[in-house]
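Page 47, continued from p. 46.
Same chain as before, 184 aa.
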Amino acid sequence: MPGSLSTQAFGINDTGAIVGSFNLPGGSNGFLFIEGRFATLSVPTGVTFAQAFGISDNGQIVGNYFDAMGRLEGFVLEGETFTPLHVPGSKQTRAFGINEKGQIVGDFQDVVGGGSHGFLYSEGTFTTLDVPRSVLTQAYGINDKGQIVGRYLGETVVPEPATWLLLASGILGLVYFRKRRATS
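Result:
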């Protein structure tokens, strides 16, 4: 974005429209780059931080912004209509991808425990996406077939005390039999 401190492009659709964010001394905002021209995204008054991450072929844009309470929330922008996205009961919601059906993916953080979960927003309903035995799941993109990509962080496995005891017993047993065999 001309005149910005930095510019990041995050998403592109099949028509070549690009979305991302740019930084100025007073904050950050999302942009749409189409047909060789930059346009700042239309966000609610008072928003000083916004990022656009995904754009569908029909021009729906998804991203994140800080609301008036200072919470990080997702949004969908269709034309001039800005619609906040908030997973009920979450501390924060972020939107990263959108397909032609208007299905949106992202992640949210629990109020209690702070766990991070992926979500699919489709036809007005949020569905939680969690990889089994993971401590973090994030959904970054969705194609027109509904296939979702993202990342997860598996749980850290800490052996139980009984496992350590069994391992130590086995090692001591091997040492004992080896010494016994050496003295025979």
